[in-house]
Design goal:
Number of helices: 13
Largest sheet: 3 strands, antiparallel
Strand order of the largest sheet: 3-4-5
Order of helices and strands: EEHHHHHHHHEEEHEEHHHH
Length: 330
């Protein structure tokens, strides 16, 4: 890391590395866990990129020309091994650089005309379209579940898929669930979410999961089966299970959920590249819109604060029904 020093008003010598660490810590303090990890990786990438230049460049404070060149290298890497970054990734890294400078008491180089012009040129040239993953609709989830056999791992995977879909859970919410967060009632299952992306202060919310008429795709029965199979009484709800069916104690990661969805999608004859962990949540919303559910009911489950974001799923699910291009429809 760069070892250049700056002198404060109190004539105390402070290394750029120390400032970088403090700025990084402040920038992350109010962020969600997943966001923290992304910002941490973003900042470290920028610092290492600056250190690799010849000669090395200061990362804090960074010159506007340094940031502009960094953006260019992200979209058109000089290293053939590196893949071009998406516009959404570059935008997040700009935010990270800006926040780090502000918290360290420096003017953000991201507002400089050179950086702004470079960023606008990248967006105009390469576009900002973000290819989203396909929603796992009710029929898709059923097909995924039907690929599961008997056994410990299948019991866990079935519970995870059906609960994730029925409650429109985020991956981070699913992996954070403990057995103590479950309350079985006459109508079904109440799941306490201690903290989520839209509830960073941890006030907590409760999701009500009803029994499904069809036992084969009932999330409540699936969770009960998993608890009976695993004999889990405390701790993490979803833990690792090896090929032999041995139940471990390590909480599943959000990446493990993404792999599970992809594996089940492939087993069901779907394109695994189009599915990820978020597909369960988006599939819930899309299916609910198709079924005619009102936005208030949907957002009460998903926790969406923005109707605009929620309606993205509405357009995705119903465009073919409402499009004026369906001129030959009967």
């Amino acid at each position: 890391m760069t070892t250049a020093v700056i002198r404060t008003d109190q004539t105390q010598l402070t290394t750029v590395a120390t400032l970088s660490e403090k700025a990084h810590a402040y920038a992350l303090a109010s962020k969600a866990d997943n966001t923290k990890r992304a910002y941490s990786a973003d900042w470290q990438h920028f610092v290492m990129w600056c250190d690799r230049q010849d000669p090395p460049l200061p990362s804090l404070p960074a010159a506007p020309s340094t940031v502009a060149n960094y953006l260019v290298d992200l979209i058109d890497p000089a290293d053939p091994v590196e893949a071009p970054r998406r516009s959404s990734t570059i935008a997040r890294r700009l935010t990270t650089i800006s926040q780090a400078h502000k918290h360290a008491g420096f003017d953000s180089p991201t507002t400089d005309k050179m950086v702004v012009s470079t960023w606008q040129g990248i967006k105009r040239t390469h576009g900002t379209h973000r290819e989203g993953k396909a929603p796992a609709l009710a029929a898709d989830v059923r097909r995924m579940v039907e690929t599961l056999t008997t056994g410990t791992k299948s019991s866990r995977d079935k519970a995870l898929l059906l609960l994730g879909f029925a409650g429109a859970f985020r991956r981070s919410e699913l992996v954070a669930l403990d057995v103590a967060d479950l309350l079985f009632v006459r109508e079904g299952l109440e799941v306490t979410i201690k903290r989520s992306k839209t509830d960073q202060e941890g006030q907590g919310t409760i999701k009500a999961i009803a029994y499904a008429p069809d036992a084969a795709v009932c999330p409540v029965r699936a969770v009960l089966d998993w608890l009976n199979t695993s004999q889990r009484k405390t701790g993490a709800l979803f833990v690792d299970v090896n090929k032999a069916g041995h139940i471990g104690s390590d909480r599943l990661s959000d990446k493990a959920i993404a792999r599970l969805v992809k594996d089940r999608a492939e087993a069901a004859g779907l394109d695994p590249a189009k599915y990820a962990g978020h597909s369960l949540r988006s599939g819930h919303v899309t299916t609910a819109y198709d079924a005619g559910a009102d936005e208030g009911s949907i957002s009460s489950v998903t926790g969406h604060k923005s109707v605009t974001v929620l309606r993205q799923y509405d357009r995705r699910s119903r465009w073919a029904k409402n499009s004026s291009t369906r001129l030959w429809s009967s």
